[in-house]
Design brief:
7-stranded antiparallel sheet, 6 helices, 40% helix, Transcription factor zinc-finger domain-containing protein, TF_Znf
Protein backbone atom coordinates (compact mmCIF):
# COMPACT_ATOMS: atom_id res chain seq x y z
CA UNK A 1 0.00 0.00 0.00
CA UNK A 2 1.16 3.50 -0.82
CA UNK A 3 1.95 5.71 2.17
CA UNK A 4 0.39 9.16 2.52
CA UNK A 5 3.19 11.74 2.16
CA UNK A 6 1.46 13.77 4.85
CA UNK A 7 2.53 11.02 7.25
CA UNK A 8 -0.90 9.52 8.04
CA UNK A 9 -0.48 5.95 6.84
CA UNK A 10 -1.82 4.11 3.83
CA UNK A 11 -3.62 5.56 0.84
CA UNK A 12 -6.33 3.75 -1.08
CA UNK A 13 -6.55 3.64 -4.88
CA UNK A 14 -9.81 5.33 -5.87
CA UNK A 15 -11.50 5.71 -9.24
CA UNK A 16 -12.20 9.33 -9.94
CA UNK A 17 -13.24 10.83 -13.30
CA UNK A 18 -11.88 7.79 -15.12
CA UNK A 19 -8.49 7.95 -13.40
CA UNK A 20 -7.17 5.78 -10.57
CA UNK A 21 -5.86 8.19 -7.96
CA UNK A 22 -4.52 7.65 -4.43
CA UNK A 23 -6.59 9.13 -1.65
CA UNK A 24 -5.62 9.18 2.03
CA UNK A 25 -8.36 7.82 4.28
CA UNK A 26 -7.15 9.98 7.17
CA UNK A 27 -6.36 13.47 5.80
CA UNK A 28 -8.27 13.07 2.49
CA UNK A 29 -5.19 14.35 0.64
CA UNK A 30 -4.65 13.15 -2.92
CA UNK A 31 -1.53 12.17 -4.83
CA UNK A 32 -1.80 12.53 -8.62
CA UNK A 33 0.84 11.05 -10.90
CA UNK A 34 2.19 12.93 -13.89
CA UNK A 35 -0.65 13.71 -16.29
CA UNK A 36 -3.53 12.69 -14.02
CA UNK A 37 -4.50 16.24 -13.10
CA UNK A 38 -4.82 17.12 -16.78
CA UNK A 39 -7.01 14.07 -17.41
CA UNK A 40 -9.24 14.93 -14.48
CA UNK A 41 -9.59 18.56 -15.51
CA UNK A 42 -10.50 17.50 -19.03
CA UNK A 43 -13.06 14.94 -17.88
CA UNK A 44 -16.18 16.57 -16.59
CA UNK A 45 -18.16 13.77 -14.92
CA UNK A 46 -18.35 15.42 -11.55
CA UNK A 47 -20.71 18.32 -11.18
CA UNK A 48 -21.43 20.81 -8.45
CA UNK A 49 -24.40 22.93 -7.53
CA UNK A 50 -24.37 26.58 -8.61
CA UNK A 51 -24.13 27.46 -4.93
CA UNK A 52 -20.98 25.39 -4.37
CA UNK A 53 -19.39 26.76 -7.54
CA UNK A 54 -20.14 30.34 -6.54
CA UNK A 55 -18.79 29.87 -3.02
CA UNK A 56 -15.65 28.13 -4.23
CA UNK A 57 -14.83 30.78 -6.82
CA UNK A 58 -15.49 33.56 -4.31
CA UNK A 59 -13.03 31.98 -1.88
CA UNK A 60 -10.22 31.89 -4.44
CA UNK A 61 -7.69 34.33 -5.76
CA UNK A 62 -4.48 35.87 -4.57
CA UNK A 63 -0.89 35.54 -5.64
CA UNK A 64 1.99 34.01 -3.73
CA UNK A 65 2.20 31.19 -1.21
CA UNK A 66 1.38 31.67 2.50
CA UNK A 67 4.31 31.12 4.90
CA UNK A 68 2.75 28.07 6.58
CA UNK A 69 2.46 26.41 3.17
CA UNK A 70 6.10 27.15 2.34
CA UNK A 71 7.25 25.61 5.62
CA UNK A 72 5.64 22.21 5.09
CA UNK A 73 8.07 19.42 4.39
CA UNK A 74 6.50 17.12 1.84
CA UNK A 75 8.58 14.87 -0.38
CA UNK A 76 7.86 13.24 -3.72
CA UNK A 77 6.95 9.60 -3.29
CA UNK A 78 8.80 8.67 -6.48
CA UNK A 79 12.13 10.53 -6.15
CA UNK A 80 12.01 11.87 -2.56
CA UNK A 81 12.76 15.43 -3.67
CA UNK A 82 11.06 18.16 -1.63
CA UNK A 83 7.73 19.26 -3.08
CA UNK A 84 7.72 23.04 -3.15
CA UNK A 85 4.37 24.73 -2.65
CA UNK A 86 3.18 26.84 -5.54
CA UNK A 87 0.11 28.83 -6.43
CA UNK A 88 -1.55 26.89 -9.25
CA UNK A 89 -1.63 28.95 -12.47
CA UNK A 90 0.24 31.66 -10.53
CA UNK A 91 -2.85 33.33 -9.11
CA UNK A 92 -5.59 30.74 -8.69
CA UNK A 93 -5.15 30.83 -4.93
CA UNK A 94 -5.02 27.02 -4.83
CA UNK A 95 -1.72 25.96 -3.26
CA UNK A 96 -0.35 22.72 -4.71
CA UNK A 97 2.86 20.79 -4.05
CA UNK A 98 4.39 19.52 -7.28
CA UNK A 99 7.52 17.43 -7.81
CA UNK A 100 10.19 19.55 -9.57
CA UNK A 101 10.94 16.51 -11.73
CA UNK A 102 7.32 16.20 -12.81
CA UNK A 103 6.44 12.92 -11.05
CA UNK A 104 3.23 14.21 -9.64
CA UNK A 105 1.38 16.60 -7.41
CA UNK A 106 0.04 16.56 -3.86
CA UNK A 107 -3.35 18.12 -3.15
CA UNK A 108 -4.79 18.60 0.32
CA UNK A 109 -8.36 17.69 1.14
CA UNK A 110 -10.81 19.55 -1.12
CA UNK A 111 -8.17 21.07 -3.37
CA UNK A 112 -8.84 18.72 -6.28
CA UNK A 113 -12.50 19.74 -6.41
CA UNK A 114 -11.53 23.39 -6.05
CA UNK A 115 -9.09 23.13 -8.94
CA UNK A 116 -11.70 21.44 -11.10
CA UNK A 117 -14.25 24.15 -10.43
CA UNK A 118 -11.65 26.82 -11.14
CA UNK A 119 -10.43 25.23 -14.38
CA UNK A 120 -13.90 24.40 -15.63
CA UNK A 121 -14.97 28.00 -15.29
CA UNK A 122 -12.10 29.04 -17.56
CA UNK A 123 -12.82 26.22 -19.99
CA UNK A 124 -16.39 27.50 -20.24
CA UNK A 125 -15.23 31.05 -20.85
CA UNK A 126 -12.75 29.82 -23.46
CA UNK A 127 -15.42 27.77 -25.24
CA UNK A 128 -17.99 30.54 -25.14
CA UNK A 129 -15.66 33.23 -26.41
CA UNK A 130 -13.44 31.05 -28.60
CA UNK A 131 -13.89 33.23 -31.70
CA UNK A 132 -12.50 36.17 -29.81
CA UNK A 133 -9.38 34.23 -28.83
CA UNK A 134 -8.37 32.68 -32.14
CA UNK A 135 -5.18 34.75 -32.39
CA UNK A 136 -4.20 33.95 -28.81
CA UNK A 137 -4.81 30.24 -29.44
CA UNK A 138 -2.66 30.23 -32.56
CA UNK A 139 0.13 32.05 -30.77
CA UNK A 140 0.08 29.61 -27.85
CA UNK A 141 0.03 26.66 -30.22
CA UNK A 142 3.25 27.94 -31.79
CA UNK A 143 4.89 28.65 -28.40
CA UNK A 144 3.77 25.29 -27.09
CA UNK A 145 5.34 23.35 -29.95
CA UNK A 146 8.59 25.26 -29.43
CA UNK A 147 8.68 24.69 -25.66
CA UNK A 148 7.96 21.01 -26.05
CA UNK A 149 11.05 20.71 -28.22
CA UNK A 150 13.25 22.57 -25.75
CA UNK A 151 12.51 20.82 -22.49
CA UNK A 152 10.26 18.29 -20.87
CA UNK A 153 11.44 18.89 -17.34
CA UNK A 154 9.30 21.77 -16.20
CA UNK A 155 6.42 19.73 -14.88
CA UNK A 156 3.23 18.41 -16.38
CA UNK A 157 0.96 21.40 -15.87
CA UNK A 158 3.39 23.77 -17.51
CA UNK A 159 3.31 21.91 -20.77
CA UNK A 160 -0.34 21.19 -20.84
CA UNK A 161 -1.88 23.10 -23.69
CA UNK A 162 -5.26 23.87 -22.17
CA UNK A 163 -3.58 25.06 -18.97
CA UNK A 164 -1.37 27.48 -20.86
CA UNK A 165 -4.35 28.76 -22.78
CA UNK A 166 -6.42 29.26 -19.65
CA UNK A 167 -3.53 30.91 -17.86
CA UNK A 168 -3.07 33.47 -20.63
CA UNK A 169 -6.78 34.05 -20.80
CA UNK A 170 -6.82 34.83 -17.10
CA UNK A 171 -3.93 37.27 -17.47
CA UNK A 172 -5.70 38.91 -20.38
CA UNK A 173 -8.83 39.49 -18.33
CA UNK A 174 -7.22 40.82 -15.19
ZN1 LIG B 1 -2.93 11.59 4.81
ZN1 LIG C 1 9.64 13.29 -7.94
Amino acid sequence: MVECINGCGGMAPTHYEGVEIDVCGTCSGVWLDFGELTEIVETRDASWSANVIEKTLASLGGKGVPAEERERELTCRVCSLALPASNYQTNSGVIVNACPDGHGVWLDSGELETLQIYMERWQDIAARDSGQYQDLLRQIEADYAEKEKQSLREGPAYFDFINIFINRLINLME
